């Protein structure tokens, strides 16, 4: 693990997903120049400034395990569902396996936010393989809040006021990231379609990176079926919440290939792609601000130009890119404290029995 790493943050102006403004409207209290692990305003960006967005493919889990028909029937078509948004320290470690605030270990999330827009979205996009009842979902949500939500400083009581504003903030931010990083569409546009076929890890990587340049990706599989993808993010202010971060390659429990199981509802065609599943990346405008390590906390902003036109694997397993000149602003800053640990651990600590943490 390197002590200093390069965090690459990308702003995509036409990612098609759930409309965030109507679902998660909030006043802007800080701007998007505020980056995790570089500022001390913990209400603006997470003081545990590296975030892991864990998204699950329940058809893959159910293909390798026993799921009730009722669970299979409620899996939403054309989307990966939420597992969690996990804040990591700026040293790349999980803050605590039991959460960060013992006074806010709530026994029911449903009781706090039932009837809200956030709650209705959770019922659809944050479901459990264990059952279809609200209590089955609630157990899952209680765990995610207790272990991870209490470690997400923008949701602290001191920042948002009394409960349930804290719970609402954490889950709405997590759902906003689910909407922004639409894995199903990214994979489909890259020709990786959930039809029960086997795809290489490189095919998955290339499809995701075409949609979200600079992303670090981790995979979890059971019996060869991919059931979870984890995306490495850095906390950002101004309502942006999280943007891609590049780190050393993460642990992969899927090997070099994986089966992408078909859902019981069949193969959904995203609205932003052709029926053939060809890439529509040309419709997405992306500008990238690269934050590179220096020996000082801030440095001069320079105007440089880079546009990634091709991405390949090196012999070390890292990605290298061919660039052409466009217009981009590059700012350098000291991010030596932002080294990231592996997304996965050797032992499963997971409510979903996925490889890795929960």
Q: Which spans have pLDDT < 50 for at least 5 consecutive residues?
A: 1-28, 274-355
Overall CATH class: Alpha Beta
- Overall number of strands: 13
Structural class: alpha+beta
Q: At the fourth CATH level, what is the homologous superfamily?
A: Ribonuclease T2-like
What percent of the residues sit in helical stretches (DSSP H or I)? 10-25%
Q: Can you tell me the number of structural domains?
A: 1
Radius of gyration: 19 Å
Shape summary:
globular
3D structure, described in words:
Keywords: Signal. Belongs to the RNase T2 family. The protein is α+β, with helices and mostly antiparallel strands. Helix content is 23%, strand content 22%. It has a single domain, classed as Alpha-Beta Complex (Ribonuclease Rh, Chain A), CATH 3.90.730. The strands form four sheets. Strands 2, 3, 5, 6 and 7 form a five-stranded antiparallel β-sheet that branches. Helix 5 (117-125) packs across helix 8 and helix 9 (183-189) crosses helix 10. Residues 1-28 and 274-355 have low confidence and may be disordered.
């Amino acid at each position: 693990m390197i002590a200093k790493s390069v965090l690459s943050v990308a702003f995509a102006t036409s990612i098609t997903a759930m409309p965030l403004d109507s679902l998660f409207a909030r006043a802007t209290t800080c701007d998007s120049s505020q980056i995790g692990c570089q500022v001390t305003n913990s209400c603006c960006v997470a003081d545990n400034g590296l975030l892991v967005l864990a998204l699950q493919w329940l058809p893959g889990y159910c293909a390798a395990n026993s799921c009730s028909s009722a669970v299979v029937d409620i899996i939403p078509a054309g989307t990966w569902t939420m597992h969690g948004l996990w804040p990591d320290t700026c040293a790349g470690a999980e803050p605590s396996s039991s959460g960060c605030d013992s006074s806010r270990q709530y026994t029911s999330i449903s009781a706090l936010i039932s009837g809200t827009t956030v709650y209705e979205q959770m019922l659809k996009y944050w479901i459990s393989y264990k059952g279809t009842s609200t209590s089955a979902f609630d157990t899952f949500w209680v765990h995610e809040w207790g272990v991870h939500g209490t470690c997400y400083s923008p949701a602290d009581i001191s920042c948002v006021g009394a409960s349930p504003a804290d719970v609402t903030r954490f889950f709405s931010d997590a759902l906003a990231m689910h909407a922004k990083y639409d894995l199903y569409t990214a994979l489909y546009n890259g020709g990786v379609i959930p039809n029960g076929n086997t795809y290489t890890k490189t095919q998955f990587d290339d499809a995701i990176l075409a949609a979200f340049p600079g992303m670090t990706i981790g995979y979890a599989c059971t019996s060869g079926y991919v059931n979870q993808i984890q995306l490495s993010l850095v906390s950002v202010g101004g309502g942006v919440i999280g943007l891609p971060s590049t780190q050393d390659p993460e642990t992969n429990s899927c090997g070099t290939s994986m089966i992408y199981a078909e859902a019981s509802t069949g193969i959904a065609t995203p609205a932003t792609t052709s029926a053939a599943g060809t890439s529509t990346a040309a419709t997405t405008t992306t500008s990238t601000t690269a934050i590179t390590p220096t020996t000082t906390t801030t440095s001069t902003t320079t105007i440089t130009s880079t546009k990634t036109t091709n991405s390949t694997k090196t012999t070390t397993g890292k990605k290298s890119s061919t660039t052409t000149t466009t217009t981009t602003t590059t700012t350098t800053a000291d991010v030596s404290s932002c080294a990231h640990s592996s997304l996965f651990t050797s032992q499963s600590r997971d409510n979903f029995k996925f490889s890795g943490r929960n």
